Q: What sequence folds into this?
């Protein structure tokens, strides 16, 4: 097979993958629309045209923001959670009795999945390779990292923030934190993103807002807080300076 034939074959395979990715995302939007309509929303004609073609608008917005190549490479669970969050968000705008917590919860799951898939999974392997499996310090963050490495727990955004903060401020580090610092030297793609001022400041604002923790557990999240958190997490699909796109950018895409 000559070079031209190889390129033509790869192009056909790419087009097929793109079509599958778009079709899959569309099915996720439709599924969420049906679920919410059946379970939580009492439709009313006073909603007006805000909900007309909502499924198409959400689908196109996600598709345009991430693009075809990223859409094929982002973990499926992340897209599912983003779709669920957006469908809930638009229903909330026309039905204030709907639960704002649902939007925050789905975005929280999307971020947790990205942290696990793009940062922690390789860190866990790195720690095992370097025989880091014992706990020597009674430190909350150190204990959390011990559970992450040895029990396959997720690393919460709150813990991730404080780990990044310790690294940026050159504070004293314990065993697992030192291994994480060493891990970053071997993964500059991760280090470049999570130690940057832009990522750190966005994450700090979300952590300080307490929407993923105290307010979520107390069921005290309102529309303004939800909208503000959504801006930092996905930037209303208008600006890639947001937490989700920053994490996705960690992994270089192979064309």
A:
């Amino acid at each position: 097979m000559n070079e031209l034939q190889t390129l033509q074959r790869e192009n056909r395979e790419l087009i097929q993958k793109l079509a599958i990715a778009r079709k899959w995302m569309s099915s996720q939007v439709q599924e969420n629309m049906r679920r919410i309509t059946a379970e939580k929303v009492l439709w009313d004609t006073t909603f007006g045209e805000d909900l007309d073609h909502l499924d198409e608008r959400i689908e196109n917005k996600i598709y345009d923001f991430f693009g075809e190549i990223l859409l094929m490479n982002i973990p499926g669970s992340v897209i599912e959670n983003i779709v669920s969050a957006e469908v809930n968000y638009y229903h909330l705008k026309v039905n204030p009795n709907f639960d704002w917590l649902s939007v925050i919860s789905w975005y929280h799951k999307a971020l947790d999945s990205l942290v696990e898939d793009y940062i922690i999974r390789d860190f866990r392997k790195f720690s095992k390779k370097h025989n880091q499996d014992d706990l020597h310090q009674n430190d909350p963050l150190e204990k959390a990292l011990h559970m992450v490495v040895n029990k396959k727990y997720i690393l919460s955004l709150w813990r991730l923030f404080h780990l990044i903060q310790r690294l940026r401020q050159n504070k004293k580090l314990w065993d697992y934190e030192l291994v994480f610092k060493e891990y970053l030297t071997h993964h500059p793609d991760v280090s470049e993103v999570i130690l940057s001022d832009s990522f750190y400041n966005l994450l700090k604002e979300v952590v300080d807002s307490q929407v993923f923790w105290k307010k979520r557990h107390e069921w005290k999240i309102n529309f303004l807080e939800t909208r503000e958190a959504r801006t930092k997490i996905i930037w209303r699909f208008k600006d890639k300076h947001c937490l989700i796109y920053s994490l996705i950018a960690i992994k270089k895409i192979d064309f």
User: Anything to note?
Assistant: The longest helix spans residues 3-39. Confidence is low (pLDDT under 50) at residues 38-49. Residues 1-97 form one domain. DSSP finds twelve helices and no strands in the chain.
